[in-house]
Amino acid sequence: MAVTFSDLHTERGLKTLEEHLASKTYISGDQLSVDDVKVYAAVLENPGDGFPNASKWYDSVASHLAKSFPGKADGVRVGGGVAPPSEAHPHTEEPAADGDGDDDDDIDLFADETEDEKKAAEEREAAKKDTKKTKESGKSSVLLEVKPWDDETDMKKLEEAVRSVQMPGLTWGASKLVPVGYGIKKLTIMMTIVDDLVSVDNLIEDHLTSEPNNEYIQSVDIVAFNKI
């Protein structure tokens, strides 16, 4: 079962460690383990004669570490605490259990990066949706009726004038000439439009019945307008 030690830099914390080691040689039994190294790192110095079990344990762990790390330690500062200089072993201090150590700062920084990445991913996803929306925008099929000025109007040129109007979202379709009377014919022509890109009213007023197309086209009426 996992054992929790806290405030090992205080007398209260050392008392807990002392009681735990009353029946044990090491933290998790009779052999040195990683648990001992973790607890050792949290104890600032040898607990002293007031804590004989903890003091004996501390010296034993220090002895083993000295063999693994034979280099001379000059002492380091970690999380605001100063590790005691030692000829036998290096000594570091873990952050306090309340979470005020440097590890929390590292975690916060990592979280910020994650939020930035998440935001960037959301922006890319939104851009994809906008593009998809444009591609999937509604379409309509429109039948126009184009009337000439009189029976002398060249209907071939009239149709060429109509089809010369090009814009994004506009596709011209089939057409035919329909007799009106007195030798006059009108042009009926189909077109397919993307609703978000083409306004039929603007198409008629700004392109079909304005210069230079109004030389052949007198008027344009919408005969049918159906959503596709």
Structure summarized in a few sentences:
EF-1 is composed of 4 subunits: alpha, beta (1B-alpha=beta'), delta (1B-beta), and gamma (1B-gamma). The chain is of the alpha+beta class. Helix content is 39%, strand content 21%.
Largest sheet: 4 strands, antiparallel
**Which architecture of the domain at 139-227 would the CATH scheme give at its second level?**
2-Layer Sandwich
Look up the CATH topology of the domain at 139-227.
Answer: Alpha-Beta Plaits
Task: Please write the string of helix (H) and strand (E) elements.
Answer: HHHEEHEHEEHE
Instruction: Please tally the β strands and state the result.
Output: 6
| CATH fourth-tier homologous superfamily of the domain at 139-227 | Ribosomal protein S6/Translation elongation factor EF1B
Give the helix proportion (percent range). 25-40%
CA-based shape: rod-shaped
For the largest sheet, list the strands in their spatial order: 4-5-3-6
Regarding quaternary structure, what we see is single chain
Structure description:
A hairpin with a 2-residue loop joins strand 4 and strand 5 (184-194). Among the domains are: 11-68, no CATH class; 139-227, Alpha-Beta Plaits. Helix 1 (11-20) packs across helix 3 (52-68). The relative contact order is 0.09. Strands 4-5-3-6 form a 4-stranded antiparallel beta sheet. The chain has a two-stranded antiparallel ribbon with strand order 1-2. It is 39% helix and 21% strand. It has helices spanning 11-20, 34-42, 52-68, 102-135, 155-163, 200-208; strands spanning 77-78, 81-82, 139-148, 170-181, 184-194, 217-227. It is of the alpha+beta class. It is built from 6 helices and 6 strands, in the order H-H-H-E-E-H-E-H-E-E-H-E.
